[in-house]
Amino acid sequence: MSVKPFHLAWFLQGSSIQAWGANWTGNISEEWMSASMFVDLARNIERAGFDYLLLEDSIYIGQNWQNSRDIFLKNGMSVPRQEPTVVGTLCAAATSRLGIVPTLSTFAYHPYLTARIIGSLDQVSEGRAGWNMVTGSSDFSAQNFGLDQLPPHDTRYEMAAEYIEIVTKLWDSWEPGAIVADRQTGVLIDPAKVHTIDYDGVYYKSRGPLNSGPAPQGRPVIAQAGGSKPGRAIAARYADTIVAHPKGVAAMKDYRAEVTANMQAIGRDPSQCKVLFMAYPIVADTEAEARERADARAVWAANNIERCMAQIGWTTNIDFSSHDWDAPVAELSTNGHQSSLYNFITKAGSNTLREAVIAYSSMGGSYDFVGTPESVAAQMGEVMEEVGGDGYLIALPNVSRKSVAEVCDGLVPALQQRGLVRRGYSHAQFRDNLLAF
Ligand SMILES: Cc1cc2nc3c(=O)[nH]c(=O)nc-3n(C[C@H](O)[C@H](O)[C@H](O)COP(=O)(O)O)c2cc1C
After folding, report:
1. Which has fewest Cβ within 10 Å: 144, 160, 277, 361?
2. Which residue has the higher pLDDT, 153 or 418?
3. What DSSP line would sit under 114-130, residue for residue?
4. Which residues in 403-420 are b (16+ Cβ under 10 Å) and which e?
């Protein structure tokens, strides 16, 4: 029986020194400024045939615990964090087939800048750039950019729709063949093939054309993660890949089905967008060791409850420090990541806040994959077949050289053995590889 292979991407969360306390990270206190760990990661996942490296970003230091930055700073929670396109460029230089997908938030970068930065990355990587389109989630980050607060959640998505229109129009502002480089006439660029876009929207204006020139992919890849209704709608229209974290097989299946239906409703071929589900596989030499490590997550969370609450507060934009930890989770709302809050509340049920935080912090992404490389590979294959999705976004809570090796040298060969993931790239450019199966 032939199996359909699926795609893998890597979600680099946190920052360069997030794993400073973990094994096999080297002397991070001295080398934290170098991107050597990121570059090693990029080389490893390319060797393992991953489609892309997604570089998470946020542009503030967390302050969602006792209205203080202390817990974030003391524990290096997403700080120090370097600009993702700088790190991404180094990763691109160290690889030749891997897609590089930095996160640029719509409220912080003007669309012209995003089009230019990602277009430039596409050029220097020879067609391997992507953009993780996010709309932001924290008023603290907005305050770094002269705003008191972020616009309301749904307005951010309305703004994002205009924003993406501008970015894509700017990428299209150079017709194919605009660079003629004719030595005989001395003409480098054909002016008739370079156009203004003259976009005048409700939220943004841009004249164009893009001065950085055409991108090798034409339009670099767009990645999107919005899980709310407007988030899903925008993804169906524009995304080449969606990264999502619905919990459990049924929710994953529903998610893919909804993306398919939304794309069909607007006349897009659903196979043109790859939906990857978040997974934190725990792989070890024996089932017992893997299970022990999986069980240790809840113990760790119970012993580090404030840190876990601060982390959930960071994604949901809620400061839980003043809540009663031993009462059921209160009714909550957010102007931040709505689907993350929904997942948390759904998981919480009637549990106390403390119990809910421990349970949420010990979960393994969309599905809990735990075992030896062979058994995890088998589980991943079964789940993907049932879901009808396109692959996984590997998102380890701690990236160390050891955890990268467990995935790239343990799990991936077992997946390859089963024909579940690629053994090599069939194309030079990112989107071509993404759409290859
Ligand atoms: C896998 C994944 C990666 C994400 N990466 C980022 C990121 O790097 N920066 C960011 O601000 N938000 C990030 N988000 C948050 C999303 O952009 C989005 O705000 C979130 O999923 C909630 O969307 P919603 O409000 O539409 O539900 C990520 C979400 C997921 C599931």
Report:
1. 144
2. 418
3. HHHHHHHHHHHTTS-BE
4. bbebbbebbbebbbeeeb
7-12 and 52-55 as β-strands: parallel, antiparallel, unpaired?
parallel
Residue of 120, 102, 101, 112 whose CA lies nearest to 213: 120
Residue 67 Cα distances to 63, 158, 297, angstroms: 5, 30, 26
Mutate to test the pocket of ligand 1, among 340, 343, 346, 393 (most ligand atoms within 8 A of CB): 340
Q: CB-side exposure of 159: number of CA atoms within 13 Å?
A: 21
The alpha carbon of 193 and the centre of ligand 1 are apart by a number of angstroms equal to: 37
Write the residue with the smallest CA distance to atom 19 of ligand 1: 337
Helices first, then strands: H and E counts in the chain: 17, 14
Ligand 1 pocket: which of 134, 224, 277, 339 to mutate (most atoms <8 Å of CB)? 134
The protein residue with its alpha carbon nearest to ligand 1, atom 11, reads 136
CB 98 within 8 A of CB 50: yes
Enter the pTM of the model.
Answer: 0.95
Nearest 5°: phi and psi at 119?
A: -60, -40
Nearest ligand 1 atom to the CA of 278 is 1
- Nearest-Å Rg of the Cα atoms of the chain is 22
- Specify the range with the lowest mean pLDDT, choosing from 76-90, 155-169, 186-200: 76-90
Band (1; pLDDT cuts 50, 70, 90): very low
